[in-house]
User: What shape does this take?
Amino acid sequence: MLFWIALSSVMLMLTAGVAMLLLDNYLAVVVASSVLSLALSVLFVVLQAPDVALAEAAVGAGLSGVILALTLRRVGLWRINVQPPAAVTKTSTEAKS
Amino acid sequence: MLVEEAAWLYVFAYLGAIGLILLGLYGLVMSRHLIRMLLGLSLLEAGVNLFLIAAGYRPGGVAPILTEATRGLLMVDPIPQALVLTAIVIGVGVQALALALVIKVYQAYGTLDMDALTAHIAAVPVARSAPTSVSAEEASP
Amino acid sequence: MNLREFAGLIFLLGLGVLLIAVLTTLPYSNSLTGVGNNILAQAPAEVGTANIVTAVVLAYRGLDTLGELLILFVASTAVGMILSKAPGTASVTPPLSNTSTGFVFSAAASLLFPFLILLGSYVILHGHLTPGGGFQGGAILAAAFFIPILVSPASPFKHAVSSLLETVAGLVFIGIGLVALFGSGYFLAPLGHPGTPGALLSAGSLPFLYLAVGIKVGAELAGIVAHLAQP
Assistant: This one.
C-alpha cells in the first residue's frame, strides 16, 4: 500500500516539476508549484518525517504559492488567457512567457 | 531481509530527489525569464531537502515521536529532519526576498526577459575614476 | 539557441549519471550514525520532550534555530525596505479584489479566520508533544493573517504591531538563552527540569522558546505577505 502511495506521489511531484518549467501561463505555474509541495509533503509522511511534512505543507503549498501569486500581480503576468464572449469588444492580451 | 524490503522507498525517494535537482538546475540555468529562474531555484531546494530526509530514513523505522505505541521501536534519524525544517523556512524567506527584487527590476526596466535586461545593463557606461589608478600603483611594487 | 540547449542537456545528463553513481554507494542499512543514535537514546531523559525533532531543533541545535530566525528577520526587513512605496507604480497592479467582494467570500473568510488562528496556536503550543512547533504554527498564523488583507484591502495591515511582536518575541528567545548561559554555562541550554514526556508543561523552557519562535515567524511571514500584497 505504501508502495503505491510513494510511487504516485513521486510521479506527481516530477510531473508538477516538469509542468513548472514548461507551462506558459504563470498562474498555472503557481498551481503546479503548490501541487509539487503537496506531493512532496505526502512523500515526507511516507518517509516517517511528519514534522517536515507539516512544515512543507504549511509553507510550500500555502505561503509560497500566495507569495508567487502576489508577485505575479505586480509584474503584469496576472492575466489568464481566456477568450471573452463575442459580445465584449475588447480582447484579453496574451500572457507573456 | 529487512533491507531489501524497503529498498523501493529509498530508490523512489532518491530518484525523485535527483529528478528535482536536475529539473531545478535546468530551470535555473536555461531559462530566459527571471521568475522561471527563481522557480528553478525553489525546485533545487525541494530536491535537496528530499535528499536529506531520504538519507535519514531507516528501513522499518518509525517517526521520532515518543508515544505509547512507539516505545522501544527503531526510530529514523531526527537530525536531518531538524536541518530540513530550518531549510524549508529559509527557502521561503529567500524566495520572498528574490521576488521583491524581481518586482523592483520590473519597475525599473519594464521587462523580465534576460536578454533584454542584459542589453539594458550592457548599455550603461562604465565609470572610470581616479581610485582605480591609485590601486594599480599600490599593486605594482 | 540550439547548441546552448544541447550543451545544457548534455551537462544535466552527465550530472544525473554522477548523482546516480553516488546513490549506489549510499548505505541502505539499519545502523544509525553515532550522533543520531546518542540523541535518540538520551533525549527523553535529558530534555523531556515527546517530539525528539523538537529536542534537536531547540536543545541540541539551538544555535541553528537562532541563525534561522536571524535569516528570516533579515529577509523580512529587506522586503519591507525594498518594497516601500514608489511613485507611479499604482497603474501597473490591478486591485487585489473587485469593489464588491461578495457576501460568500467575506462570510466564509470571517468564519475561517478564528479556526486558522486556533489551529496555528495549537500547533505552536503542542510542538514538543506532537509533530508541529514554532515554524509550522507560525506559517499557519501568517496564512491566517492574509485573509483580512484579501477580504478588506481598504484596512491596511498594521506593520507597527507586527514588528513590535516580532521584536518582543526575538528578545524573549535571546533572553531565555542568556538566562541559560548565566545559569548553567551554555547558551540556550534547556532550563528547568524535564517533566514527564507527554504533559503540556514538560521539557522546562522549550515550550516558551517555541512560543517565541512561533510568534516571531508568524509576524515576519505575515509582514512579508502584507508588503507584497499592498503596493
Notes: Residues 78-109 of chain B form the longest helix (32 residues).
